[in-house]
Amino acid sequence: MNNSAGNTARLAWAALRALLVLTLVCGVVYPLAITGVAQALFHDKANGSEITADGKVVGSDLIGQSYNLPKKDPNDPEEAAAPDLKWFQPRPSNGLGSNSVNTQYKLILSGATNRSGDNPELIKWVTDAKAAVVKDNSTAAYKVKPSDVPADAVTSSGSGLDPAISPEYAKLQVHRVAEKNHLSVAQVGKLVEQNTDGRTLGFIGEPTVNVLKLNIALKALTEKG
Prior knowledge:
Elements: H1 2-41, H2 43-46, E1 50-53, E2 56-60, H3 120-137, E3 164-165, H4 167-180, H5 185-194, E4 196-197, E5 208-210, H6 211-224
Antiparallel strand pairs: 1-2, 3-5, 4-5
């Protein structure tokens, strides 16, 4: 009986020591070590790839934002937010909240539509989106043709939160942005070129333009003028 109680006590003490050691190693030492390495070698990514402007964090390099005019009735969930056409616009997405001053955004949801390519509702969305892109980006001196509209201008990404657009879509918006901000097409076109990121390692993926960074550069240019 005594031996049994003693063995039980020794096993319980061994288990407790193992628990304490593993808690210390896995719950304290390991997380601190990984956090330290991340902060030392990947500081920007470890902190959410934050983007700052005017000394404030205005978003993340990884999450898209929308640039809409304020709703006439903020309490009406049925009222669709109209895009603020003085800004470059992102890809369509139900996962993007509104951001009329470029300082904050609200995430609603993330995910794809999961509709097939021949789904009537999806076809209508794409058709309506293409018509809107043509209308919104046509100016007195520049007319957009439906064939000019790239796929990313009328479809959302898989997550619905893609922060980037194609250089083709950015260039399509140049004339409209220039007109709305009283800038020259050359000035705005140069901003697009300066904010175009090439393929990863020179061959992976496609060139992209981060919309938030581009709009920050646009804001700086308009304030300078």
